[in-house]
Amino acid sequence: MKVFAISDLHLSLDSNKPMDIFGDNWTDHWSSIKQDWLRQVSEEDIVILAGDISWAMDYAHAKADLDAVCAMPGQKILIRGNHDYWHSSLKKTTGYLHNRTYFLQNNALSLGGYVFVGARGWKQRGEAGFSAEDEKIYEREVHRLQLSLQAAEKLPGERIGIMHYPPFSQERGASEFTELYAAYGVKKVVYGHLHGKRVRRASLENLEIQGTRYFLTSCDQLDFKLLRIDTADAVR
User: Fold this and answer.
1) Averaged over 159-170, what is the pLDDT?
2) Partners of 212 in the beta sheet?
3) C-alpha closest to that of 78 among 56, 59, 100
4) How many Cα atoms are found within 13 Å in the side-chain-facing hemisphere of 107?
5) Of 19, 107, 147, 167, which has the highest C-beta tally within 10 A?
């Protein structure tokens, strides 16, 4: 069994939203992802999708995107991103998922000897424009990660964390999120959210904080290919 990750698919199969806002390399990006997915993933494998799955604003318009993901091989684990406005509750989203596709929110998932934990996260304290409202959301996301990690305590297996926002500080240092992952013995965490040429990939590769390794999985940063994370070196 292999474990792969990718994030920020930004699908819009219901409306075919242009993706050139992110760059010319996004042309027909879902076809590129699918091709690599079908090449690498067997039905027994696990694929993490770390947020920003669909541009849709409601379930009716997100259905085509969710169905496309569900139809892919493997066991799929989804988490909410900042653009997943269609998602309103764990119960309702779960009703739209099928073919061994799961949603992570305030819970932990045990699949194939692994235990998956996480939360959406939020922008970090110290970022420009961080407001009192941001502080409330930040604290809520910290609590949600705590709930997920506490649920994992009852489940055997290697823990893998899933976030949408980068869990560490702007200086690539510790935060309340990284402290929690370290405290609960999570050795690998995937995240997304970061796009484009301005992303300093070199400073993010092989990032380790307090014994936890962090893997950027935004699809454009991976050349629209899945990243394998169950191996020690996270090879592609």
Assistant:
1) 94
2) 209
3) 100
4) 13
5) 167
β-strand partners of 218? 7
pTM of the predicted model over 0.90? yes
209 pLDDT higher than 80: yes
- The mean pLDDT of the chain is 92
What is the arithmetic mean of pLDDT over 72-76? 98
Structure tokens at 232: 């020690």
DSSP label at 192? -
Q: Are 210 and 174 in contact (CB under 8 A)?
A: yes
Listed residue (205, 191, 192) closest to 233, CA to CA: 205
Instruction: Give the list of residues 6+ apart from residue 108 with CB closer than 8 angstroms, or none.
Output: 115, 116, 117, 148, 149, 151, 152, 155
Q: Name the more confident of 10 and 23.
A: 10
Paired with 158 in beta bridges are 114
DSSP state of 175: -
Dist. CA 175–CA 233, nearest whole Å? 24
Residue pair 103/93 in contact (Cβ under 8 Å)? The answer is yes
Q: Which of 229, 232, 234 is nearest to 3 (CA)?
A: 229
DSSP for 137-158 reads HHHHHHHHHHHHHHHHTTS-SE
The residue with greater pLDDT, 108 or 125, is 108
> How many CA atoms does the CB half-sphere of 179 hold within 13 Å?
6
Which structure tokens are listed for 102? Answer: 């799961």
Where is 179: in which H helix or E strand? Answer: helix 176-183
Average of pLDDT values for 40-63?
Answer: 97
